[in-house]
């Protein structure tokens, strides 16, 4: 019903009313017509996130799935930045780190394709983006960075960062119109889960700042990684650890053996 930006907007409105406001500071709008498919619908962009894979690669054993969260200190993020030859965002470097470590942990064949889908808030990408201020519904895309397991493992973090940066800028107003048209033509197909992982950045949502009148939340984010039967979903969540140190949490969902390998790969990448 709602994406991260819409949920944060709803939570803010809820807390404002709880603290005595007669109406929310940002008025809700419908404007669903902006996101409707064209007539006739026609796909104008490449949407490889919706490709259907015929030959499944290794998937996690759902009978041994475990959940674990990994805490990134500012020093950890600095360590990752030293592994890339150029400036990049914290989201880019953590996403690349997750993708590389997860792919190595799964021990895939070098020729097998892997996908990293980054959830992108599309509201600012529309020419009339002011019309979407107050829109509570879904308005995002998840373009897929695609390579093979072999190339990703061999070329390292900088290579992964470049792939991620390139697909993020693909999300434009035309791209969103093309997605809407694809949903009509292909009857609301789902993204491929084979060899895929999806990541969402919750740092800008600032759920910890939601205040119903008794102060900020201790934690604001998801409880665990994965999304229903799909274990490849994760989130970047701001968090303060037991020592009062600010950082970022990455909740992961993998089989028990793959989780051990993931933790080992992450420690090696961070130089721990």
Number of strands: 8
Listing every helix as H and every strand as E from the N terminus to the C terminus, the arrangement reads HEHHEEEEHHEEEH
Structural class: alpha/beta
User: Strand order of the main beta sheet, please?
Assistant: 1-8-7-6-2-5
CATH topology: Chloramphenicol Acetyltransferase
What can be said about the biggest beta sheet?
6 strands, mixed
Radius of gyration computed on alpha carbons:
20 Å
- Broad CATH class: Alpha Beta
* CATH homologous superfamily classification: Chloramphenicol acetyltransferase-like domain
Number of domains: 1
Secondary structure: helix percent:
25-40%
* Anisotropy-based shape: globular
| Poorly predicted regions | none
- Mind telling me which CATH architecture this is? 2-Layer Sandwich
As a percent range, the share of strand residues is 15-25%
Mean pLDDT across all residues, rounded? 91
Number of helices: 6
What separation lies between the terminal Cα atoms? 41 Å
